Structures are given as structure tokens and as C-alpha cells.
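User: quick one, sequence for these C-alpha cells?
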């Protein structure tokens, strides 16, 4: 009788051990499946975040290009934009364009002619990404409030230029109030404030538009 009980208990423990091992293996498979699902989810999330960042960056670039093209119509894509004649305009729009040029990789300005009034402010503010050719000329005068009311005196002010430009203007007699006789800075003087560059007809864009600068002359 004692031998029968011993054999029964041994059989019971053997069956229990086999069942427990099978459950353990099944749990490992399930856990492995969960780990793989989490890994796939994480990879998908990272991929989506990367795509979202790229889309947001492209939106930012397009917005900056739009700000620049508003005041420099030739500037439609990333790359050096050539200014041959720009009469200026609303100061705030040119300031926004200067900020956009500084913030956008690949955007740069080449002054290849007359850059007047607010255009000169743009070239000054974006100076780290601006160069001039032998044809460049800057025109300065006092700014004025476009929202003035009839019957009231026109408010004139000195435009927001860097200290070196303001010092030169002061030496030349100050910002003129007569818009018909603006103060001109020829390239012989401008080259002390902006780097010189030359235009060539080769494909754009280039990695660094201020080194070995080339652009399509329009």
C-alpha cells in the first residue's frame, strides 16, 4: 500500500512539473509578443515624430520664404536672392524678411544694384547672410509713419540701422528728410560694411552661399 501511494505521488508531481513548465513557456511567448508589439509601436511613434518635425520645418521654411518674397519678389526658393533694384516699402515687412533670411539655411541676399530705404535696413539686419557686387548702391533717408492723419504733421524718424551705418550717415550729415535727395552709399564705401561677391550662372542652391557665392542672374 505504501509503495502504491509513493508511485501515485511521484506521478502527480511529474505531471504538475510538466504542466508548470508548459505554462512558463507559454507565458514567455506571450511576453515576447508584447515586447515586440511595444518595440514596433515605439519605432512607429519615432518615425511619425520625425516626419512631423520634417513637415513643421518645411512649413517654417515656406513661411520664411514667403516673408522674403513679399519684399524681394525674385526670392521664391531657398538659395541666394539677387536684388537689382528695390525701392523699399513698409519697414516692418522688410524687418520680418531680414529675420526670415537669418533663420533659414540656404537663404542669402546679393545686392547687385539699388537698395533703397527699407531695403537698406533689410541688408543691414541680415548682414551675416548678405554680400554686395560692384554694382551695389544703398540709399538712405528718414522713415515716416504711414498711418498719419490728414492735417497733422508727418512723423519722421531715423531708421533702425546698426551703429557703423548710423555713424557713417551722421558723418555724411544725417538721414535726409527730402526723399527726392536721398543719401547714397556707393560700393566703394559699402564694401567696408558688407563682403563683396560676384555673380555667375551656375545651378543653385549651394551649401554655403557666402563662400564661393554664385547665383543665377535674373
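Assistant:
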Amino acid at each position: 500500500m505504501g509503495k502504491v501511494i509513493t508511485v501515485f505521488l511521484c506521478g502527480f508531481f511529474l505531471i504538475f512539473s510538466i504542466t508548470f513548465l508548459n505554462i512558463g513557456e507559454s507565458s514567455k511567448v506571450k511576453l515576447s509578443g508584447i515586447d515586440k508589439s511595444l518595440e514596433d509601436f515605439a519605432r512607429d511613434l519615432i518615425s511619425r515624430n520625425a516626419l512631423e518635425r520634417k513637415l513643421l520645418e518645411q512649413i517654417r521654411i515656406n513661411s520664411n520664404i514667403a516673408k522674403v518674397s513679399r519684399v524681394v519678389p525674385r526670392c521664391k526658393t531657398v538659395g541666394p536672392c539677387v536684388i537689382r533694384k528695390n525701392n523699399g516699402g513698409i519697414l516692418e515687412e522688410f524687418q520680418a524678411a531680414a529675420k526670415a533670411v537669418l533663420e533659414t539655411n540656404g537663404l542669402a541676399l546679393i545686392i547687385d544694384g539699388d537698395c533703397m530705404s527699407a531695403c537698406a535696413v533689410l541688408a543691414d539686419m541680415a548682414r551675416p547672410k548678405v554680400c554686395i557686387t560692384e554694382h551695389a548702391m544703398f540709399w538712405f533717408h528718414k522713415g515716416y509713419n504711414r498711418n498719419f492723419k490728414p492735417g497733422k504733421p508727418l512723423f519722421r524718424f531715423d531708421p533702425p540701422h546698426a551703429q557703423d551705418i548710423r555713424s557713417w550717415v551722421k558723418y555724411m550729415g544725417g538721414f535726409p528728410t527730402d526723399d527726392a535727395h536721398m543719401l547714397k552709399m556707393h560700393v566703394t564705401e559699402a564694401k567696408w560694411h558688407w563682403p563683396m561677391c560676384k555673380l555667375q550662372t551656375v545651378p543653385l542652391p549651394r551649401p554655403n552661399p557666402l563662400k564661393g557665392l554664385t547665383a543665377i542672374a535674373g
